What we know:
By secondary structure, the protein is mostly helical. The protein is built from 14 helices and no strands. The termini are far apart.
Amino acid sequence: KIGNYQRAVDALIIASERFPDHTGIRVQLAKMSMLSGDTSAAITLADNIRNLPKLSSDDLQQIAVLYLDGALPEKALKTLEEADQIIPEPVGELKFELSLLYEQFGDIDKSITNIKSAIDLQPDQVKYYVLLSELENKVNRPQAAISALETAVTILEKSTEENIAQNKKILKKQGTDHHFDLPFAWNPAAIYLRYAQLLYRVGNYSQALDNIERSLELDPGNIKTRFIAAEIASILLDYEKVNRICQLPTLNDSKNCLA
Length: 259
């Protein structure tokens, strides 16, 4: 915990010699080796652990992360697939992780299949619908993408206070997560913005403006969002709203946001 990884490695080597059949100690030794900068040793340990009998799904998931740390995504994917096959009860998060890896390898069909399974298992997880929306948009199914984000928005709409708290929490989390977080913003403000952009794409300008204004309520300092909001308002010929968007105190009054 204090960052002395080499001493942790030394202690775990002693522990693994004393308890050679303890898989958890070996996994921790591999993780500490990676943190200490010895990638080669960590991957060798991960390979050895993976060949042990009676590994748990959790063991395999931790090994998959080690492979990702070592820039071996193919091994990571195969290991996660093995974890998915032996897990006693299906878990949404594992399906989510598989979906992300399949997407990285360009297998969008498998990615969509797995994220839909994740949603079936845990239908209250906003990030699952956000990923599904992005995948549906990639295969040019805008209505399916909109439907997925509509569900995400429905889950979000509890109270303004909760949304603001979640907005801050997710923004902070996105700066620290590794490997299995979404590679794009999915805090509430970003979700409303993305939802508005999808609605804009299919010509639903009025609903798009409603949602982008919700995004601005949560993230009033986002200049890019203001530009898009002003553009949509101008399409709707609501120049009073355009003027109001451009002159809010978060903007430099000397600049016209439509310039």
